[in-house]
Amino acid sequence: MKLDVLNQPNDKLWYTDGLDFTCTQCGNCCTGGPGFVWISEVEIQRLAEHLQLSVEQVLKKYCRRVSGRISLKERFNQGNYDCVFLKEIPATRYDERAGRQVQYTKRICEIYNVRPLQCRTWPFWKENLQSPAEWKHATRNCPGSNRPGRHFSVKQIHDLRDAPDWPENPPSSET
What we know:
The structure is a single chain. By secondary structure, the chain is an alpha+beta fold. The protein has two domains: 7-23 and 122-175, no CATH class; 25-112, no CATH class. It is built from five helices and eight strands, in the order βααββββββααβα. The chain has helices at 41-51, 55-62, 117-120, 132-138, 154-161; strands at 19-20, 63-66, 69-72, 74-77, 80-83, 86-95, 100-109, 151-152. A two-stranded antiparallel sheet has the order 1-8. α1 packs across α2. The protein is globular, with a radius of gyration of 18 Å. The N and C termini lie far apart (39 Å).
């Protein structure tokens, strides 16, 4: 049985000084063990408009029903479960150690601009904010966490954590 953590006064939170996060669009939060990306009817409509498809087409091609709710589908890929919208593309970057351009595979979200609320509010989910250990575990593979970049105050974190719909300033690569 899982019980919700009681809301604590801001002066008793472990992250009273706020947290740093800037999405690098690495795709690491879009892959891993099997899971769910819950999507609302409003978000499905937004996705349909973005993809220029009907709601029915989006539901059939990209979504699955789970216990009366709707989640984005996943694909099994090299031992992980990727979000159906995580795409791997060839890219080139300059490697200073090698002194030359190198090829690599870049992962991108094909629907980044219309991604669901669950994605927009990462990593400020209630379960990730329970303790420094939970935060460290959740963000261990996230190159945008805990590094200089965009700083979020406790109020901003809680606004994101509790957002009922797309937040005005989601944690994204834009500052």
